[in-house]
Automatic annotation (TrEMBL):
Species this chain originates from: Sphingobium vermicomposti
Broad EC category: hydrolase
Hydrolase is among the record's keywords: yes
UniProt KW keywords: Hydrolase
The protein, known as: Alpha-ribazole phosphatase
Pfam families referenced in this protein's UniProt entry, alphabetically: His_Phos_1 (PF00300)
GO molecular function: alpha-ribazole phosphatase activity
Entry superkingdom: Bacteria
Length: 186
């Protein structure tokens, strides 16, 4: 029984850091991009997959070029769609609505935004297409959705993981569908 290694990396610091960027296409900060490129140097992978959003895509392109590996841009690895909250500083939103969202993102999605189950569904579909050692450059929400799908954790459990900008989560996937976390670097 052979396993497959995947590495999930959160993009580095973007412009407009600290906001609910969701599907906003904020470009990466140069230092944040350099952190991602540097962290990737010690990893083994045959492919790079990135979200189509610039803050993940641009460092992913740089890493794939540096390592001379295939690059695939996949919008299923986007962050949760925060709908009307996209681009806002959380401090500028109604505290009670934001609290309800963090407590139960399935029952209380952002206005015109995405439910937690929809994020998990699209990330799960993206995961099923990975068949070789891969580095996925994505977003904290998508990484948490991957943990939920692969390890059977609920939203409260995955939100307990600290995934700052540039965080790296390594997993081993087994043919029977089970997964094992092999490393977390924040």
């Amino acid at each position: 029984m052979t396993s497959l290694s995947i590495h999930l990396m959160r993009h580095g610091v973007p412009e407009m850091a600290g906001r609910l960027l969701g599907h906003c296409d904020a470009p990466p900060d140069l230092d944040g991009m350099a952190l991602c490129v540097d962290r990737a140097r010690s990893l083994r992978f045959d492919h790079v997959v990135t979200s189509d959003l610039a803050r993940a895509r641009i460092p992913g392109e740089t890493i794939a070029t540096e390592r001379n590996v295939a690059l695939h841009i996949d919008p299923r690895w986007r962050e949760l769609d925060f709908g009307q909250w996209d681009g806002f500083d959380p401090a500028d939103l109604a505290a009670d609505a934001l609290s309800r969202f963090w407590d139960d993102p399935e029952a209380n999605p952002p206005p015109d935004g995405e439910r937690w189950s929809a994020l998990c569904e699209r990330v799960g579909a993206a995961l099923s297409d990975i068949s070789a050692p891969t580095l996925v450059l994505s977003h904290a929400g998508a990484m948490r959705a991957a943990l939920s799908v692969l390890c059977g954790m609920d939203h409260r459990q995955v939100w307990a993981f600290d995934l700052p900008y540039g965080a790296l989560l390594s997993l081993r996937l087994w043919p029977d569908g089970t997964a094992q976390i092999t490393g977390l670097q924040s």
